[in-house]
Amino acid sequence: MFFFVCAGCGAELTVPLSQVVLPVHAHQKYGNGTQLPVLMESGTFAVESEPWGPPWRKWEEIHPDEAAARGVYAPVHALSDGAPGATVIAPGDALGTVLIPENRGGGYCCGLDGSAGPNVACAACALPVACRIDDCSLWQAMWLAPSAVRRLPVDGTDAVPRSWAELMAEGKGTPPFEPLAAWGSRLGAGHWSNYWWSWSPQWEAAASRALAHLLAASGGRPVTVPDGLAAEVFRRTLDAMLPAGPPARRAVLAGPGRPDPDGEADILLVPVHPQTGEVWAPAYPAAYPVPLPFGVWLWLAFPEPDLPVPTSGVLPDGVLRDDFDPPAPRPRHLFRADPHTFRRTLVRLPDVRRPWLREILDNFTQHIHAGSF
Q1: Contact at 8 Å (CB) between 172 and 179?
Q2: Regarding beta strands 128-133 and 120-122, do their DSSP bridges make them parallel or antiparallel, or are they unpaired?
Q3: Per-residue pLDDT tens over the stretch 271-330
Q4: Most Cβ neighbours (<10 Å): which of 98, 101, 214, 221?
Q5: What is the pLDDT of residues 137-172, one digit of tens each?
């Protein structure tokens, strides 16, 4: 475990934290006015390896060779010229920090969005150390500036990452549906106002990254995915972007606790270890591994059944029922992947330089208008 201190005066700025993988949805902007929860689980931190935040340079100002050296192989609106290595934590895990009054409202709508640079300072020496983000449609987070903080180990806390077997035993999946609320919703007499059931924003981001990899793995051929939830999430967009007709490439779910896929599987939907970022090693190295966050993969590979429907009859005295809650309502709309996450992933795959895949990227706006995203 680690804690972070101010690079200027050495004051402690966080509680002890353990490192995890940066969430796929870390930079997601979801909907319009949606109230999103905290990005990071309390007690954890993650590191953004790429530059992020202001100042930004437009694509026209960047030579393609420079962009490729940074792992970007197709045009984007802009690239950050900030320092790499920003650390994100839950805002509640911060210590000894204060908002910078003159920078609290830079670019905000309903809260802080960090677009004007650091808006949080060390309370001891006033050095700007972080960006607090809590605006609508953004995940609530505290981003520590890499040049303003130092990471120090906590003595006697060398922890071994959990094994795949331990992760499976915990069974911590990410549900595909969840209730969302608009900014300013209030708890009324027994119900939420301005509140609805939706596909999980985490799923939309995770599926978008996977879709970019599925397209790269397709080689321009159609791709088949397993029936069920995977089909709801991937099939409609894949069918819209890839040509019809055989021969199709076959994608299957693979990973711990799953039977070994047969040798005819071309693409494997596999989990990413939530602590180490390790992608589960496929049994068939020739197959293309498509990464999914562990919680999303777990629900796809081992979907949890709906709660049982209450039955009639009388139970013995002293026996209480716990199955009266109805199943979670399903969203009324079809699944739509997150276009920003999809594009952000696709431009970072070298295969995007292939003409057929570059054509998909160039026509991406048409796919959005067609309802694929």
Answers
A1: no
A2: antiparallel
A3: 999 999 999 987 667 789 999 999 999 999 998 775 444 444 555 555 555 555 566 678
A4: 214
A5: 999 999 999 999 999 999 877 778 999 999 999 999
What's the Cα-to-Cα distance from 57 to each of 61, 71, 103, 165, rounded to whole Å?
6, 16, 22, 45
Q: At what angle do helices 201-218 and 294-301 cross, to 10 degrees?
A: 80
Contact 57, 75 (CB under 8 A): no
Question: Is-contact 23 52, C-beta < 8 A?
Answer: no
Q: Which tokens is 110 given?
A: 């309903």
Pairing of strands 249-253, 86-89: unpaired
**Global pTM value:** 0.89
The sheet that has 141-144: what strands, in order across it?
18-19, 44-48, 86-89, 141-144, 128-133, 120-122, 97-99
Residues linked to residue 279 through DSSP beta bridges, in sequence order = 272
Number of Cβ within 10 Å of residue 159's Cβ equals: 10
Single-letter amino acid code for the residue at 324: F
Residue with tokens 């709309």, as numbered in its chain:
333
Which among 240, 195, 206 is positioned nearest to 222, based on CA atoms?
240
Residues contacting 49, CB < 8 A, separation 6+: 22, 84, 85
Is the separation of the CB atoms in 315 and 321 below 8 Å? Answer: yes
The rounded distance, in Å, linking the Cα atoms of 7 and 146 is 9
Peptide bond preceding 37: is omega within 30 degrees of 0, i.e. cis? no
**Dist. CA 317–CA 323, nearest whole Å:** 17
Spatial distance between the Cα atoms of 330 and 336, rounded to a whole number of angstroms: 14
Q: 252: exposed, middle or buried (C-beta count within 10 Å: 0-12, 13-18, 19+)?
A: buried
